[in-house]
């Protein structure tokens, strides 16, 4: 916490814009459409995750609180953590740090 508050400039990556990469920014309509579709897909995937974990948790005798607080959090963040490790291996530490900390 101390490092992130007092030495924030040491962990900040270089700022980039879409024009730096030669890309055109999306219109508001396209952005909202993509955000809506992705939100629906994430909700669907979350339902599938819970549907898969429910029978296993019931067979193992796990409580709903344990499943909701511990198990779903671990399984849900597995992709985030693996992405952070993969970009760290590619020596993109500012991105890996940002993913791991949640910036």
What is the count of DSSP helices, taking H or I runs of 4+ residues?
Answer: 5
Number of distinct beta strands: 0
The shape, in one word, is extended
Instruction: Estimate the helix proportion, in percent.
Output: over 70%
What proportion of the residues form beta strands (DSSP E)? under 5%
Secondary-structure element series: HHHHH
Unreliable segments of 5+ consecutive residues: none
How confident is the prediction overall: mean pLDDT?
Answer: 82
**Secondary-structure class:** mainly alpha
Largest sheet: none
Radius of gyration: 19 Å
Regarding quaternary structure, what we see is single chain
Distance between the termini: 14 Å
Topology:
Layout: H1 2-6, H2 8-11, H3 28-60, H4 64-89, H5 93-101
Helix pairs in contact: 4-5
Question: How would you describe the overall organization of this protein?
Answer:
This protein is mostly helical. The chain is 75% helix and 0% strand. The protein is built from five helices and no strands. α4 runs antiparallel to α5. The longest helix is centred in the middle third of the chain and has 33 residues, at 28-60.
Notable traits:
mainly alpha, 5 helices, extended
Compact description:
The protein is mainly alpha-helical and 103 residues long. Helices cover 75% and strands 0% of the residues. The relative contact order is 0.08.
């Amino acid at each position: 916490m101390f490092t992130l508050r007092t030495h924030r400039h040491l962990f900040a990556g270089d700022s980039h814009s879409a024009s730096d990469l030669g890309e055109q920014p999306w219109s508001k309509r396209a952005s909202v459409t993509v955000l809506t579709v992705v939100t629906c897909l994430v909700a669907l995937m979350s339902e599938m995750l819970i549907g898969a974990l429910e029978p296993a948790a019931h067979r193992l005798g796990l409580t709903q609180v344990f499943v909701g607080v511990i198990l779903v959090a671990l399984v849900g963040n597995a992709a985030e953590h693996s992405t952070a490790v993969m970009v760290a291996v590619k020596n993109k530490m500012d991105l890996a740090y940002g993913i791991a900390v949640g910036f």
